[in-house]
Amino acid sequence: MKNAFYAIFDRLYSFFGPQHWWPADSPFEVTVGAILTQNTNWSNVEKAINNLKKRNLLSADKLHRLSKERLASLIVPVGYYNIKAKRLKEFLGFLLKGYQGNIKKMSLMDTLLLRQQLLAVNGIGPETADSILLYALNKPIFVVDAYTKRILLRHRLIKENDDYVQIQNLFMQNLKPEVKLFNEYHALLVRLGKEICLKNRTKCDVCPLNSLKNN
DNA sequence: GACCAGGCACATC
DNA sequence: GATGTGCATGGT
Length: 215
Known about the structure:
Blueprint: H1 4-16, H2 27-36, H3 42-54, H4 60-65, H5 68-74, H6 81-99, H7 103-106, H8 111-119, H9 126-136, H10 146-154, H11 164-174, H12 179-200
The protein binds a DNA duplex through residues 21-22, 33-34, 37-45, 47, 76-84, 87, 122-128, 131, 143, 145-148, 186-187, 189-190, 193-194, 198-199.
């Protein structure tokens, strides 16, 4: 008998199918996107990333050499562009200094140690760190976001004041640590949040999870 | 025009 | 330690 976390996953996967996350051409692009997408719509991030791509600037060296002001001007569509230019620069400094600008070198590190290092970078919090670990470096770390919390609350699997790590542990203790599973699961929760919860508000009758226990 | 988005750091009490 | 606030564009 599978637990509730697998039951939710199965429902979502049957309903939506594979989500093909993270939409990016390289691990470096994933990390840039992870920082730029903070509290922002993904379509805005695509515009900013395209601004960088079409100028052939999407590399650690090139972005690091840009002035903060120039970088900010290229990422305007993401909103919070000044603070995100600063955050991106903080991360690039960390990547260049610690790993010679090489994402693959980063992925050789112990996962939890690397997570601590990422969290120590100003501008990288738990969700951004975990997105980088899972989607750029293929580490089996579960990503928790606002949708995840909202959906779990709705199904009474967490309490209102449960924090990030508590929610993350709930997934990681109830699921096998498989990168593919964690990847698809978080993407599916975001898809559900965007497409059903947000658009239909209280009309949960169209939710693919609506006949599961505890909802 | 209001509300929200694939957050985070910092100030203040 | 909890609670509040600034950061800002673009879609619905």
